[in-house]
Design a protein that fits this description.
The protein is of the alpha+beta class. It has six helices and seven strands, in the order E-H-E-H-E-H-E-H-E-H-H-E-E.
């Protein structure tokens, strides 16, 4: 999954809105639903300023989006520092970035750090997703296991059971109730238990 997190700067929010609305109007949603009915992005008042991106460059796609946005808002300049997804949220927290393109979910410590600094959660917008069996320029999910683990493999359904159907791993905000550990589905011998 590719995610873009942002703080409250208006040119940055307008850029993210353009990313989400314009490409989606010509695409299919998951499950094959047409998204043609979404409104086309229309530039509002002339924007100017600098949008600082720090994180993952999406394999060059971010630069293409910036070029398209500048056609609508020539007064907006982009400054990109795209070393790795690991730098994305920390750059927002320290105030050196307005947008943080990231190749995955923010960690608990990253989200907590942002919240403790600004008093609210970062705005996350998913703009691309990867999958284990679909080629593309998006990061797919990787699960690392100990070499001594007796399992020879897990299905996506089994992984879903291990990590929780809600994709929250039982978290409630920043807390994990121990009762959630008793409700988690585990895999033994290749079967869901």
């Amino acid at each position: 999954m590719i995610r873009i997190s942002t703080g409250p700067r208006s040119p940055a929010l307008a850029f993210v809105a353009a990313l989400v609305i314009v490409p989606a109007s010509q695409a299919l949603a998951p499950g094959g639903l047409r998204l043609d009915g979404l409104p086309h992005y229309e530039a509002g008042p002339e924007l100017s300023g600098t949008i600082r991106n720090f994180g993952f460059g999406l394999g060059g796609v971010l630069v293409l989006w910036e070029e398209g946005f500048r056609k609508l808002h020539p007064g907006v300049r982009f400054v990109d520092h795209l070393p790795t997804s690991d730098a994305a949220i920390p750059a927002l927290v320290t105030g050196v970035a307005d947008l943080a393109p990231d190749g995955g979910e923010a960690t608990l410590t990253e989200t907590l750090s942002f919240f403790e600094t600004y008093g609210y959660h970062p705005t996350d917008i998913t703009v691309a997703t990867g999958a284990f069996d679909v080629a593309g320029r998006s990061n797919g999910i990787v699960v690392f296991v100990n070499a001594a683990n007796p399992l020879t493999g897990l299905t996506m359904r089994q992984l879903d059971g291990v990590f929780g159907a809600q994709r929250s791993a039982g978290m409630r905000g920043f807390k994990w109730p121990t009762a959630e550990g008793r409700r988690t589905t585990f895999v033994r011998g290749g079967s869901l238990v």
